[in-house]
């Protein structure tokens, strides 16, 4: 699996293509991918999504992807490292740090384009135009200040859309912050089942088990344990497709001590056992 490396904290890559030239790959950095023109399919971690103008994808360092272009497409990649989002010039407030932490640790890739509403796409396109203009003038002394402000706005809007996708009540800032923190904590500890037990969540967030359960269900539409299980199975699915680890290793990695239990759960959600799923995937490659 090819990995693309980036050493500078931030850059922009704008190009058009009628045929995708890159193999399935991952990166050492984050990518916000704007589809400015065209249409086709985007394959992310084994999931297939159609894309068209206005769609926006956010990929992390361990995500695998490639495009199948059906109509000549103009792509704009905003590529940045973890060092960039931790730069004091960009991240100053606790609210911003929580927001960016939630955004970069959410399983956003399983839903395709982050942005669904036309008005949000228009707003991001406007910010992107300003960013591209400033990027061309990056020798100017004010470039870094303006660029940081625009990138903060873009990432903030993407975070807002990720939260809205989970059904967060916009008019309730305290609820929004709490669900962001819970989702981020789950993402960071998805391979540590002991850290995701209810007693640990209670200790971490200082709410009763009953309150956390009702709150999470109300905000996301599913129970805490259901969300954790579905997230974990999605990660296992990705490992089966894009890693050389054995099924036993993957089972252990995600805290399943009993392979037969994983088989039953995986088959319930995907219609196949992990072994059957991997075999079927390899037949297509």
Produce a short descriptive summary.
Helix content is 50%, strand content 19%. The chain has helices spanning 82-85, 94-105, 118-136, 143-165, 173-188, 198-205, 209-220, 224-242, 247-253, 259-270, 274-284, and strands spanning 2-4, 10-17, 25-27, 30-44, 47-52, 56-59, 65-80.
CATH architecture of the largest domain: Sandwich
Number of E-state strands:
7
**Overall mean pLDDT:** 85
**Which fold name is given in CATH as the topology of the largest domain?**
Jelly Rolls
Give the ordered list of helices and strands.
EEEEEEEHHHHHHHHHHH
> Which stretches are low in confidence, meaning pLDDT under 50 for 5 or more residues running?
none
Which structural class matches the secondary elements?
alpha+beta
Keywords: DNA-binding, Transcription, Transcription regulation
Domain HTH araC/xylS-type: 180-280
InterPro entries: AraC-bd, Homeodomain-like_sf, HTH-like, HTH_AraC, HTH_AraC-typ_CS, RmlC-like_jellyroll, Tscrpt_reg_AraC-type_HTH
GO molecular function: DNA-binding transcription factor activity; sequence-specific DNA binding
